Structures are given as C-alpha cells and as structure tokens.
C-alpha cells in the first residue's frame, strides 16, 4: 500500500518535469528560429558595392525592358518576400499573379501544411521543393532544369515570348551580389542585344537588375549544400486557360 501511494504521489512531479522539458525545448527552438531569422536578414541586406561588374540597377536599357509585356505582367502585382527565407514561395506567388492567378499570402501556397511552412521558415526551400509547390497549384507543366549551358540558357530565355511560359531561377548570390547565399527570383525578360537577363529580385532593397547571362549561368552552376545537387531553374508552362 505504501509503495502504491508513493508511486501515485510521484506522478504529478513527473508530469511537471516533463512539461518543463517541453517548455525548455520550445524556448530553445524559438531561440534558434529567431537566431536564424536575424542571421538571414543580415545576409540578405543589399550591398550594391558588392555587385559584380556588369550588373545594371538603373539606366535606359533596364527601363526599356521593364516596359516590355512580360515584365509588365509581373509588375502589376509584384511583391517582395515576406520573410528572409521565403524567396521561393514569393517567386512562385509572383509568377501566379502574372498569370492572373493571384495568391493573397505566401503561406496560402502550402495549402494548410503547417509543418512544411515552418520548415521553410527555418531553412528555406530547395529547387525541387519549390517545383513541387508549383505543381501542387495545378498551374500547368512544371519542370526542373539543371546543367544548362550558357547557350541552353540563352535559347530558353529567347522563348520567354511563348504564351504562359515563366522561369524561376535558383542561384547562389555570390557571383552576382558578393554574398554566398542561395536565392530564388523570377525572370522578367531578356535583352539579346546586351545579352542580359531582367532579374526580378524578390528580396526588399535589391530591386530589379539586368544581369549578364554568363554571370547568371555561373551562379546557377553552383551546388546547393542541402541537396548536394546543382542549382538551376524551374520552367513553368501554364495551361491554355491561364496563358497570356
């Protein structure tokens, strides 16, 4: 009888200790997330003095390409990323908006999958994960393109006039912006005369840029340390009902 009473009296203390462990784990997790978010914001702060030679952030050529039909479809409802790690979902949201499929919030793209949303908050997303998110919207044909040569990339860029075609590029910022960090942004056009790409950077403060095709190709031919695979781009060909 005495032993049974002792065991019963130990149960509330055991529950309190377990609750304390869970609470401490939660505080530790929140602290880690806060630290990651602070570190991420520091990394993505724009520093134009680090931009590679040949990257244009102003000028007549940039203005002219921004006025082209494809860029205008993006600019009518273009939004920068809401969180330091959400460049992938932000890029996809802007693509959908350009195809007359507006999405109110980046989180809505996850269709209630809270775990996937939280994982994105902590670590960002890989090329294949953003492609899967795009496929889940039912927008049309979605494919991941890796190992593109410079000429392959130019050929694809020239096809941007194809109705409903959109490109989301995944690259390391280091060759272009001098900061080693994986990033996503949609492409808003191509200027064959200067061989530059209109990069619609979704990070606040970076703005739109004309990036030499060779430089963008080099930034894409980098390894994603999460997957060990080369970066690349997502090609989206919208269904006829959503095409331009």
From TrEMBL:
Highest taxon listed in the record's lineage: Bacteria
Molecular function as annotated in GO: glutathione gamma-glutamylcysteinyltransferase activity; metal ion binding
Residues passing through the membrane, by range: 20-40
Annotated Gene3D superfamilies: Phytochelatin synthase, N-terminal domain (3.90.70.30)
PROSITE patterns reported for this sequence: PCS
GO biological process, one term: phytochelatin biosynthetic process
First-tier enzyme category under EC: transferase
Domain named Peptidase C83: residues: 10-241
Signal peptide: none
This enzyme's EC code(s): 2.3.2.15
Parts forming coiled coils: none
Keyword terms of this UniProt record: Cadmium, Membrane, Metal-binding, Transferase, Transmembrane, Transmembrane helix
InterPro entries cross-referenced by the UniProt entry: Papain-like_cys_pep_sf, PCS-like, PCS_N, PCS_N_sf
PANTHER family: GLUTATHIONE GAMMA-GLUTAMYLCYSTEINYLTRANSFERASE
Protein name according to UniProt: glutathione gamma-glutamylcysteinyltransferase
Organism: Thiorhodococcus minor
